[in-house]
Amino acid sequence: MDDYFRGTEDFIAVHIDDIVVFSENKEQHARHLEAMLSICEKWGLVLSPTKMKIAVQEIQFLDAVIENRRIKLQPHIIKKIISFDEEKLKEKAGMRSWLGILNYARSYIPKLDTLLGPLYSKTSEHGDKRLKSSDYEIIRKVKQAVQQLPDLELPPEGSYIIFETDGCMEGWGGVCK
């Protein structure tokens, strides 16, 4: 679906089957909606009236609530992280599940990878699976941090995007900051 909306990236975001149209004001939003609807009509895309929300100030998109140039983690994800049964963390599947949910909070907690490093070793085939008191301290710190997450703010107009990359013989990756 990305190809259908190529050239509209300044005001339309597409993820799988979700389309988000964003604008600075009502007049601009009307023009952006017309452009989006024209593309949908051209390509025969069917829009769901039950999913559609038009001209709202707040949206829930992927894992975030976006409102007034701020982005915050959806409350149900925070609840899942902090109420996760710690008994399940003693098993590899439970630890993997909790670490997977934490991926949603990664953008909000600086250096989360470093903090979680000792817990990731619990999910490897050859790592020590037993939780130590230091592991429980990490879990406590993370749950506390998730309850105090700052809202992310959209950068001011004209800001630079810093793209950090790293690579090795097996692959490469990048992060926008």
Question: Could you name the key traits of this structure?
Answer:
single chain, 177 residues, alpha+beta, 2 domains, two-stranded antiparallel ribbon, 5 helices, Viral_Replic_Matur_Polypro, DNA/RNA_pol_sf
Estimate the global geometry from the Cα principal axes. elongated
**Computed CA radius of gyration, to the nearest angstrom:** 20 Å
- Following the backbone from N to C, one meets helices and strands in this order, namely EEHEEEHHHHEEE
Number of strands: 8
Largest beta sheet: strand ordering: 3-4-5-6
Q: What can you see in these coordinates?
A:
This protein has helices at residues 26-43, 75-82, 92-102, 112-120, 133-146; strands at residues 12-15, 18-21, 58-61, 64-67, 70-73, 152-153, 163-168, 171-176. It is of the alpha+beta class and 177 residues long. It has 2 domains: 2-56, no CATH class; 73-177, no CATH class. The longest helix has 18 residues, at 26-43.
In short:
Helix 4 (about 110-120) runs antiparallel to helix 5 (about 135-145).
Write the layout of secondary structure elements.
Blueprint: E1 12-15, E2 18-21, H1 26-43, E3 58-61, E4 64-67, E5 70-73, H2 75-82, H3 92-102, H4 112-120, H5 133-146, E6 152-153, E7 163-168, E8 171-176
Antiparallel strand pairs: 1-2, 3-4, 4-5, 5-6, 7-8
